Structure formats: C-alpha cells, structure tokens
Amino acid sequence: MNFLTQAQRDFSWICDLRRTFHRHPEHGNQEFETAETIEAALRGLGLAPRRLLDTAVICDIEGALPGPMVALRADMDALPIAEETGLPYASQVPGMMHACGHDFHMAAVLGAAKLLLAHRAELAGRVRLLFQPDEELQGGAKRMMDAGCLEGVAAVFGAHVRPDLPVGQVGVRYGAFYAASNPFSISLTGRASHGAEPDLGADALVAGAQVVLALQSIVSRRVAPTDTAVITVGTFRAGTQENILAEHAEMQGILRTFGEENRKKLTAAVEAVVENTARAMGVQAETRFTWGYPGILNHSGATALVERAARALLGDSRVTVLDKPTLTTEDFGYFLQAVPGCFYHMGVGGDAPLHASHFCPDEAALPTLAALHAQVAWMALGQLTIRD
After folding, report:
1. Total-model pTM
2. How far apart are CA 194 and CA 22, in angstroms?
3. pLDDT value at position 260?
4. β-strands 175-178, 296-298 pairing
5. Which residue from 86, 113, 277, 348 has the fewest beta carbons nearer than 10 Å?
6. 3-178+295-387 adopts what CATH topology?
7. Which contacts qualify for 193-202: CB closer than 8 Å, 24 or more apart?
8. Of 302, 264, 71, nearest in space to 180 by CA
9. 180-289: CATH number
10. Which conformational region is residue 282 in: left (phi greater than 0), alpha (psi within -120 to 50 degrees), or beta?
C-alpha cells in the first residue's frame, strides 16, 4: 500500500479537522469541545472512542489479524496567546491560540486512523490512538498512564511539527532528544533599613542579584563541555520603595538537563549556590524545585524503525538524522519511560517559531505526517509480530 498517496486523497478531510481545531483552541484540561470533535471524527470512521480523565480520548483500531498493540499519541491543548496570523480560520477564542501545532498533531493522528482502517483486513494487531490533554501545563501524559492508557501497549510513537525543517522533511534523533525540566523558585529574606543606613540592614535585592549571577556559573563550571544544560531565571521581584533596603526578594526560573545524573547533580548545585551566596550576603534563602517533565530519550530500535519507515515512505532526501538535541521539553518522555518508542519531527516551514502569535505551519505537511504515522504503526506491528 502507499499511505502517502492515500493521505493526499484524504487531504481535505484532514485539513478540515485541523482548521476546526484551530478555530476552537482550548487550554490544558479544558479541551472539552476538542475532545467532542475528536470523538465525532472517530465515530464517523466506525470506531468506538472512550474518555479517559475528563478530556483525554482513547480509541483502538482492531486489526483483522492477531498481533501486538502499538500507540500513536497527539496532544490537544492550546496556548494563552492572541493570534495574529490573519488566517480565515484563525482562533475564535480571544487570547487563545494553537501556537504549538497541537491542532496539526490531532488532525494527523486522525488521518493515520483513516489510513489504517482502509487496510484493517491486513492489520496484524491493534493500534491505540492517544489524544492527550494538558501538555503545556502540568502534563497529561503521566495522568493518562496512571489511568491505564498504556496497558498492553508494546511501543508508542508521537511527533511534533517544526518550523525549522522544510515542509514535509522528517527529523529523527537517536537517544537524548528533549531536555528534562525542573522549574524552581527562590525566596530571600533579609532585613529592611533606611537606604541611607545600609549597614543596619541586609539587602535581599543585592543578594538576589548576586544569586542570579552565581547561578550562571553552574553550567560553565559544573557541566562537561560535551554535555548541555541551561539555567534560566525568568522573574525577579524585590523591594517596595526607592529608599528602603529590600527585605524580601523572589525569583523564578527553570533548569533544563539531559540524563538523570546531571539532573540530580545540578538541582543540588543550584540549592548549594543559592544557600552559600545568600549566607555570604547575610540573608536567608529557600529554594523550591518542581520535578518536571523527564525529557525524551528515544529508544534506538524504535528510532531505527521510524527512520526506515520515513525513508520507505518519502525517500532518503526527505529524512534528516538530527545531530543535536533540543533544550525544549515534552511530557511524551513519560510514555518512553514505560514502553519503548520514538518521538520524531515533521517540518512545516515558515518564519515564525513555535509559541509565536503568528505561527502558521504549512498545511501541505498534514498528509505527510498522517502517512508517516500510519507507516510507523504498520511497520512496528510487523516487526513486533515477527519478533514475537
């Protein structure tokens, strides 16, 4: 079969779904209308979707032949961004936009479902479709897993659109792909005094400035030059008036790392640097970390399968093996901690980056991503069946 040719014939159906999602974006854990649209599309294909959590949708495609089960995942939530694309199908929800391509992801997985159903008689096993809420906030992947979405699943696959790749170009990455994330907050408590008598106080603002600078030395001096990490302090609030030494200072940031060893080492380093710097400045400090997404570590066998599937579907020239990871994060990594799998990229071109108000992926990539999902699931079931 030629999934790409079939997907191109289904372009209008897939594109209409994507535009419907785009017009009606919803924030994490609020994807009720989105879930209803997904369920309606799946029922229209003769499938029986079911809810998991409040807004997650799960659906199985049963092949006519016995075999294992693999999963395809699409995230559902949008971002609190006012759209500025000027598209005729732009967001109808003020201040909310699909600026990260999740509308693309959902439509492509639905397209893959339609492609696989056309070959149900030859399908050896089961394909589970996972429509996951809340990727952008607290992470719906872990809660879906806790609710049993991966029970019986032998491998899981997913993708993300990327404007830095040409339209229809596939990017695969072996091993470490997305960083683990650890948001943190720091509170400093000093002693207020008159600005003309600084010796009588302990300036939390100055101490905070020293902390920010000291944190920037951790990556350059605690991380091997061949490794990668980023520490970002994104907010800093201190003081109440120009002639009063600040008694309190607060800052928030995020640590991004690869590998659990570096993650643990650098969180400990941040805590030590904050504590020691604050003590030297005569103030008290408290550092609080959130143990965020684990990052994405692609499994080698599953990644090799995706590469083979992409080359078979599109040819060698449209497949790029990525030599660098990204410091962005993704909760798909939770799935990969539970079962083998791979997360890959699909190029959508354009000048605007992800999370921008004018992000506008090229819809010509929609059938390519749908076909790739179908090809990956088909080949994965064949490989697992042969192996078993």
Report:
1. 0.92
2. 55
3. 86
4. antiparallel
5. 86
6. Aminopeptidase (3.40.630)
7. 193/244, 193/245, 194/243, 194/244, 194/245, 195/242, 195/243, 195/244, 195/245, 196/243, 198/245, 201/245, 201/247, 202/245, 202/281, 202/282, 202/283
8. 264
9. 3.30.70.360
10. left
Domain residue extents for the chain: 3-178+295-387, 180-289
Q: Which residues contact 271 (CB under 8 A, 6 or more apart)?
A: 287, 289
CA gap 192, 203 in Å, rounded: 7
- Measure the CA–CA gap between 246 and 194, rounded to whole angstroms: 10
- Taking the CA atoms of residue 84, residue 87, residue 88 and residue 93 in that order, the dihedral angle to the nearest 10 degrees is -40
Instruction: List the structure tokens of 103.
Output: 């509308």
Task: Give yes or no for a contact between 113 and 7, defined as CB atoms under 8 angstroms apart.
Answer: no
Q: State the amino acid at position 55 in one-letter form.
A: T
Joined tokens for residue 50: 């079911």
Which structure tokens are listed for 336? 């990969």
Sequence-distant (≥ 6) Cβ neighbours of residue 324 within 8 angstroms? none
What are the helix (H) ranges across 172-236?
A: 204-222
> What is the structure's pLDDT at 388?
31
- Chunked into runs of 10 residues, the chain (388 residues) has average pLDDT values of 95 98 98 98 98 97 97 98 98 98 98 98 97 95 97 98 98 97 97 96 98 96 90 97 97 94 95 97 97 95 98 98 95 97 97 96 98 98 68
Categorise residue 95: left if φ over 0, alpha if ψ from -120 to 50, beta otherwise: left
* CA distance linking residue 176 with residue 166, whole number of Å: 23
